[in-house]
């Protein structure tokens, strides 16, 4: 992609240089005309306009071995990149959009609307969360209703909803199995494939490895404490911190309960381990502008973030919502769709 644009720019610059040399064969005053200089400036300017890159100036100087042309190259390059930046995205961003690769995209630098749209205008308010008073029955329903969610916010109660942290789906699944039993989660966890049962006898079941996704359907967020290397002897979560085998997937003795006792267990409150709680998930205040949210997601590589108002959980925003807002800005729909005239900032 770079070489064709560089060659096209050099050709255009050379043509312009030859044309000026024909008009002024003796030069402009005491300044001689070098068509080759026009060629290298044209190559740098055209490549910079297409790729929005300033580093092309260094490439041109290294290719020619001349530092005397650095000033004209920088002037042409910065002029071209500035003008093209206001008009269209770079060729790489265009390719990403055409190929429909997952990408957050760049915000238009020349539009003030990126500072007028706030996170509360495009966040999701329908939140699935876990409270300190959540029962095992409610937890089972939550896991069954959201099979693709990787982590859940932990709040004080349903009314106050003060954010305390986040809990991974894998840990909640582990907790349900060991407190209530496997049969209460037959719709939450994927069963062991039949071909594995047929292929391996009972003598070598211990050697067959299962992935984390086969056990829970999802994995934890990379920031969860469950990814830390705790020692098995020191951590009560040792079964979660190693790969499990088919032989390990069995109902614990304490989980083999009669129906009456199992129903009683389902009505109990969930007892969460402090080690399984991520106490500092990424949070945004309701008055955060689109520009700040976009920069935060780009710099930290976030997939989602919780939106709070004085500590109270009011919503969640993910890469998908952010991508949709950026797309609506380029399509000219953002002002009508997201800007709230009654909102005065925070």
Automatic annotation (TrEMBL):
It is found in: Membrane. It is a multi-pass membrane protein. The chain crosses the membrane at residues 6-24, 36-59, 71-92. Keywords: Chloride, Ion transport, Membrane, Repeat, Transmembrane, Transmembrane helix, Transport. Pfam families: Voltage_CLC. GO terms for molecular function: voltage-gated chloride channel activity. GO terms for cellular component: plasma membrane. SUPFAM superfamilies: CBS-domain pair, Clc chloride channel. This is Chloride channel protein. It comes from Panagrolaimus davidi.
């Amino acid at each position: 992609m770079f070489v064709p644009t560089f060659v096209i720019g050099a050709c255009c610059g050379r043509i312009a240089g030859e044309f000026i040399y024909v008009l002024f064969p003796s030069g402009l005053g005491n300044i001689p005309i070098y068509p080759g200089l026009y060629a290298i400036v044209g190559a740098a300017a055209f490549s910079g306009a297409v790729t929005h890159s300033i580093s092309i100036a260094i490439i041109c100087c290294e290719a020619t071995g001349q530092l005397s042309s650095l000033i004209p190259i920088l002037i042409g390059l910065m002029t071209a990149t500035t003008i093209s930046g206001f008009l269209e995205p770079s060729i790489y961003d265009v390719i990403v959009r055409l190929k429909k690769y997952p990408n957050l995209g760049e915000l238009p630098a020349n539009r003030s609307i990126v500072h007028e749209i706030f996170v509360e205008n495009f966040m999701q308010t329908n939140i699935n969360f876990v409270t300190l008073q959540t029962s095992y029955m409610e937890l089972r329903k939550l896991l069954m209703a959201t099979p693709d969610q990787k982590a859940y916010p932990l709040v004080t109660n349903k009314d106050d909803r003060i954010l305390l942290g986040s809990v991974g789906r894998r840990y909640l699944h582990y907790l349900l199995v060991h407190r209530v039993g496997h049969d209460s989660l037959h719709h939450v966890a994927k069963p062991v494939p039949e071909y594995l049962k047929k292929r391996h006898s009972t003598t070598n079941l211990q050697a067959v490895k299962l992935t984390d996704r086969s056990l829970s359907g999802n994995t934890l967020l990379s920031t969860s404490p469950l990814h830390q290397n705790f020692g098995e002897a020191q951590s009560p979560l040792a079964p979660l911190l190693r790969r499990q085998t088919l032989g390990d997937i069995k109902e614990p003795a304490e989980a083999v309960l009669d129906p009456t006792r199992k129903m009683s267990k389902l009505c109990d409150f969930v007892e969460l381990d402090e080690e399984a709680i991520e106490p500092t998930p990424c949070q945004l205040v309701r008055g955060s502008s689109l520009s700040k949210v976009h920069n935060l997601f780009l710099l930290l590589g976030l997939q989602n973030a919780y939106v709070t108002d004085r500590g109270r959980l009011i919503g969640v925003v993910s890469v998908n919502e952010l991508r949709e807002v950026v797309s609506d800005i380029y399509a000219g729909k953002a002002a009508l769709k997201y800007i709230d005239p009654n909102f005065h900032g925070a």
